[in-house]
Structures are given as structure tokens and as C-alpha cells.
Amino acid sequence: MKKLSRTIMICLCMTMLALLFCGCEKGAGQSTEPKLLLGFSQIGAESAWRIGNTRDIEEQAEKYQISLMLENANQMQENQIAAIRRFIAYRVDVIAFSPIVEEGWDNVLLEAKNAGIPVILVDRVISTEKEGLTTCVIGADFYREGVMAAEYLIRKADSLGLEHVNIVEITGTANSTPMLQRQAGFMDTIADDGRMTVLESIDGDFLKSRGAECMRSLLASYGEEIDVVYSHNDEMTLGALPEIENAGLKPGKDMIIISIDAGQKAIDVLKEGRINCVVECTPKLGKELMETALKLKSGESVDPVIHPTETFFSDEMDPSQIAPRGY
Ligand code: AHR
Asked: For residue 98, which atom of ligand 1 is closest to its CA?
């Protein structure tokens, strides 16, 4: 009996020591204290891209033990401005936001600067005359995406031996960075190709419903004259396709369809042959955002522009090789 109680005592002591040791190790290595407080104003949930971007930022914040105040602006600039003011009042360590349009941020960003809170632009940029309102931008090279779309079209026109190519463009939100840059990259690249004519550029606001409306209107104006639909995102493309089919035409065959984002749904449609080319725009910006925010908090310098590497997927390649996209 005496021997048994001594054994129990030894076991208890060892357990207590082990618990103590584990506790110390956790305290030193994996503290659950957040490393910083990050305020992030997201544009909304207009596309699979945007939803994937929000999810990625939430996941990466958790991974990096960053406490995230996330606000969804429901596609309204005034909601983003109000969110940034709340972040300032809350004294967050770093502010990040994806500006819905480029203009109109000076006042609120001056308030953040005066409060000493660094600001990171995510996905899109702003247009301003003022110096030092933001620290850096983490987002795609939208101009390059437009160039990749146009380069595909030129190769496709060559391979089909086309002499005249009539293009309609369904653009993203007016005055947003991806709209301006995807248009500029595309137009600059086709500028010297005498076969290319842009029949019309129409604002689809990055929305599926608007993509359908725009396509109906374009078909009513130009019908079978349209050779190419260049759409600034997958959502609008997915809205446009049924309209083309309702008009008795086969997208991917009677019309060349070029899209941007490369979300899973668009890749599935590419595999069906109803989209010809999808340029990648990755929403996975969360890791760079967390690492940049941590650097800013510790006073380190950061790169002014961080572009992810992007590619394109088209009917020139074997689509069965495309890995699942994750958004
Ligand atoms: O700013 C990135 C763009 O915004 C994506 O292409 C689009 O799908 C999103 O809504």
C-alpha cells in the first residue's frame, strides 16, 4: 500500500513537471497574444475572386496570429471611408484596404497619416497628388493581364487566319484600377494590329447580372458582327455566355471569349470549350499582407510594389493539366 502511494506521488510530480514544462514552452514559442491589430476594409462580395480574397486574408491573419478587424463595404466608397475612420478611432496598428475606385481618398488617408497609422493598399491603387499617404501596394499587375489577353487574341487571329476582328469589351467598375489597367494593356497591345476593331466598351461593374445585361445590349446592336468578347472578369463572362447562347451562337466557336480571374467556374467552362482564354488574377494576397503589416509594425522598410506572379490558361494547352484553383 505504502509502495503504491509512493508510485502515485512520483507519477503526480512527473505530470506536474511535464505540465509546467509544456506551459513554459508555449509561453516562449507560440504565444496566443495577437502580434498586431490590422484593420482591413474590403470592397464587397461582388465576385468569386473577392470572396476568395476575403477568405484568404482571414485565414492568413489567423495563421500569423494577427487580430483582424474586417469590414465589408458592400461596393460603396463612403462605407470604406467610414471603416477607415473607425480603424483610426480604434487605434489599430496598421490599416489595409482595397480601394473600390482610384479617386477620393486624400482626406481620410491624411487623417490616418496624422494619427501615425501606416496604410497598405491591397489589390487596387489610388490616384493622388499627395506624398506619403500609403506605404505600399500588394496586388496584381493589371496592365500585364490586359497585355496577356491581347497577346492571346493576336495568336488566335493568326491561327484562324482572320483578316478582320470585331471586339466588344465588357469592362469592370468605372475608374477602378483593374478596369483602367486591363483596358490600357489590351488596347496598347492591339493598337498596331490593323485587323482589330473595338466596336464598343461597356461598363459591366464586375457583376454577373451586369455582364448579362451588357451582352444583351451588345448583341442587339451588333449581333453576329461580334468576333470577340473581352470581359474584365469571370463573373461578367459567366453572365454573358447564356445570352450568347440564347441568341443562337456558340461561345468559344462563333465568338472568341476572353476572361480574367481564372476562378474554378471559368476554368470548368474553358474545359467545356465555351471560353477560349482566361488570364489569371490571383486573390491570394493574404500572406504578403500579413508579412508586410508585421514589418511595418516593427519599423522595417517594405517594397513599394508587390505583384504576385500570374499566368493564363487557354485552348492552346491541355486543360486537364490545370490544377484546382481554390477560388
Ligand atoms: O480587383 C480585382 C477584380 O475585382 C477582380 O478581377 C474581380 O473579379 C474583382 O471583383
From this structure: 1
